[in-house]
Design goal:
Elements (H helix, E strand, L loop, with lengths): L1 H20 L7 H6 L6 H12 L2 H15 L4 H30 L4 H8 L3 H34 L5 H49 L3 H9 L20 H13 L5 H9 L5 H24 L3 H5 L1 H4 L16 H5 L5 H35 L9 H27 L6 H25 L5 H24 L7 H22 L15 H10 L31
Length: about 550
């Protein structure tokens, strides 16, 4: 017990220490929200990965879908790595960085407002973000709480776990802003990489090793199918719904504001390419490992020592999916339980910090500034963001406590609703806005309405009767696909917003600086004293056709 407490104290001390250290980078709005747009590939890639994977993945999704689909749930992790990380970096990264710099956009709503020349779209996007990020943050809290109770062997009230995590996250994000977040993300990401490998080894070893665990799993008969060994088969017992999970958890990152924000802040040139590789490897290990481990979840029910931690709904008698992963890992060595808690705490805090920073900056810069407070100085903007960080964390913690008490849907449903609504509304307008100069304002509005309307309408219809689509996961996946289709189709029949697309140069900052120097161009005063290699590509005063200052 003492060792687990000491590890936890050390982890908290490091997180707060990083926040104090990063204060010097949070003196401007650009520094507080995006780290000065000069974050390297390793920090950016780890920030992307740790924001992507939290207790929602390890406890909620890995537990639920590992239980439903067995080892085939690993496909979700593979999809997260290929579609959710590698292709997202390749397709969105360079253009998102170039265009947000050109438009001087700090948030996704600001991007929509300037890209489509519409203050109304900016306000609508900000409102959607503020509303639908709340359930996601609530789900992050709950997943962690279950593991802490099992690891420490005492009945720590979930509410105390939630408050503890909220306070620690609040301190370092309020102090250091984005740089405190990404620096902690890197440290926490290293813990996650070590932790997931050790935990997988320990769990499988506790069930007789990999081969014996697979044999035991293959002997469990899947419900609703006569297939033998369904839970160890290549595509599992329900391929169609598994595809919905892959689409939601992989393609969804393309339209989530807290994820694409990492592309705004990264350095120019080869940093995006490097970040893509690092992020993909990280996702393969973390997501692939989590879903792979979750595939053995049914073994916990057959194990007397682990099954005592399995919970059942008192009204329906159905298994509580969120209790499966904590039960599965309950028999690993004590020291690894401590590592596991720190690992999931790392993932959850990094995700939570990214979410609340996105929400507070969006609310301040896109709703309050210029609309409620007409003349807001830079110092006032930072103060507003810090105050709203505290408010948003408190609000999400309150909802997390209510969710623990059983008044709201469980983790995977919450994530499905929030991811589906956000990505279903934003994915098409953001993607096509980066690649096409013929996107109409009307198509963006239609995407917003369909994304939010489909996911929330499906949820409401389920409360009052039968949902339109049985699985909220599939509803969210459908909303994302529709968003990609709706934007170009509607734009064919409605007036487009004139905009010139300038594809980013594949050359690095040093190459661009050299070309500028040899062509007789002047380096902007902003880069003087930094040296050519230290200058970001967008800081070089090179005339670009159609560039807007």
């Amino acid at each position: 017990m003492i060792w687990k407490i000491l590890v936890l104290i050390l982890f908290v001390a490091i997180a707060i220490g990083v926040g104090v250290y990063a204060r010097r980078s949070a003196s401007s709005v650009d520094g507080f929200v995006l780290g000065g747009r000069n974050v390297g590939p390793w920090l950016s890639a780890f920030a992307y990965g740790t924001s992507y994977f939290s207790a929602v993945i390890f406890v909620g999704y890995a537990g639920q879908f590992g239980y439903r689909y067995g080892l085939s749930a690993t496909w979700a992790g593979i999809g997260n790595a290929i579609l959710g990380s590698l292709l997202a970096w390749w397709v969105l990264g360079p253009r998102a960085r170039e265009m947000t710099h050109r438009l001087k956009a700090t948030t996704m709503p600001e991007f929509f407002g300037k890209r489509y020349n519409s203050q109304a779209l900016r306000i609508a996007a900000a409102a959607i973000i503020f509303v639908f990020l709340i359930p996601y943050t609530a789900s992050v809290y709950n997943g962690l709480s279950r593991l802490i109770v099992i690891a420490f062997g005492i009945n720590v009230p979930y509410e105390y776990c939630i408050i503890f995590m909220a306070l620690v996250t609040c301190v370092y994000v309020v102090l250091g802003g984005y740089m405190a977040t990404v620096m902690n993300d890197f440290i926490q990401g290293c813990v996650m990489l070590i932790g997931i490998v050790a935990v997988i080894w320990a769990v499988l070893n506790g069930y007789g090793g990999f081969s014996e665990a697979v044999v035991s799993l293959s002997q469990i008969q899947a419900e609703g199918t006569a297939m033998q060994g369904a839970y160890t088969s290549f595509f599992g017992p329900d391929l169609f719904n598994l595809l919905g999970v892959v689409v939601l958890t992989s393609l969804g990152t393309w339209g989530l504001p807290q994820m694409v924000q990492k592309f705004y802040a990264i350095k120019s040139g080869p940093a995006v390419k490097q970040g893509a590789i690092i992020s993909t490897v990280f996702a393969f290990i973390i997501a692939g490992g989590s879903y792979f481990l979750g595939g053995f979840g049914r073994l916990a029910i057959e194990n007397p020592a682990a099954s005592q931690f399995i919970e059942y709904n008192p009204k329906t008698g159905a298994i509580v999916y969120d209790s499966i992963m904590p039960a599965l890992v309950s028999n690993i060595p004590d020291i690894l339980l401590g590592v596991l808690v720190v690992m999931v705490l790392s993932a959850s805090m990094s995700t939570l910090s990214s979410l609340v920073l996105t929400s507070s900056s969006t609310l301040t810069l896109d709703l309050i500034k210029g609309n409620i407070v007409k003349n807001m100085s830079e110092k006032q903007q930072i103060t507003w963001m810090r105050v709203l960080l505290v408010v948003f964390i408190a609000l999400s913690a309150g909802i997390g406590i209510i969710q623990v008490q059983g008044s709201l849907p469980f983790i995977a449903q919450l994530m499905g609703i929030s991811w589906g609504a956000l990505a279903g509304a934003f994915l098409g307008p953001f993607l096509w806005g980066l690649y096409s100069g013929k996107v109409s304002k009307a198509s963006v509005w239609v995407s917003f309405i369909v994304g939010v309307g489909l996911t929330t309408g499906n949820m409401i219809s389920g409360f009052v009767g039968a949902p339109w689509i049985a699985s909220p996961i599939n509803a969210g996946a459908l909303a994302m696909i529709l968003s990609i289709v709706i934007v170009p189709v509607v734009s064919l029949f409605t007036p487009s917003v004139p905009f010139e697309i300038n594809p980013p140069s594949p050359k690095g900052a040093g190459d661009l600086a050299f070309e500028a120097a040899t062509a007789g161009q002047e380096i902007s005063a902003e880069t003087k004293g930094k040296g050519i290699e230290g200058a970001a590509a967008d800081e070089i005063a090179i005339p670009v056709k159609g560039r807007r200052e």
